Amino acid sequence: MPLIDRDDCALVIIDVQSDFYPPGRLDVDRQRFHDMVRRIVWITALADRLGIPVVVTEEDPAGSGHTVPEIRDALPATAVTLPKNAFAVWDNPGIAAAIEATDRSTMVLTGIETDICVAHSAIRLHQSGRRVAVVDDAVYSPGPAHERGLRRLAGEGIETLSAKELFYDWVRTIEEANAFHDTHADLAVPPGVRL
């Protein structure tokens, strides 16, 4: 697959909400979830600084809360946050319109859950003719559902890559990577990402 062109992609953050996994959910690996959130914060800050549009979804915000504060605080002023009722982002008319409004043909997906909302979204966006790339270390489902979701994506021909790989696709050269680090030294690299 070709490299991801930052001038032709949008970032879609799916349902990373404060009450999605209440404390009673004992199957949730809280450290893995927290690490995923930190990677999404970092990717969101990268997108902001590189001028990449961001669309955020919230499934049933009345019941699952709003986007976690760490991600909300990293969102660019131009980001759009919309409620989601169908599992696939493309099946929600308002979200589909926001995606179309980015005028980008590559969608980079992060969020939860890998096997349901992320998978449904990736498959439907792919069917709509868009290129889709799922950041495999910036998506999450509890237990074996995460790996099952990644296998389903692979079976559907959906690309996956890491947050690190995404960064290097976006900057492309040593000179630009070094310039980015020099200019944005405040942007801490999250756990599991070695640049």
TrEMBL record:
Organism of provenance: Streptomyces pyxinicus
Protein name: Isochorismatase family protein
Xref: InterPro entries: Hydrolase_YcaC-like, Isochorismatase-like_dom, Isochorismatase-like_sf
Domain of life: Bacteria
Annotated ranges, domain Isochorismatase-like: 9-164
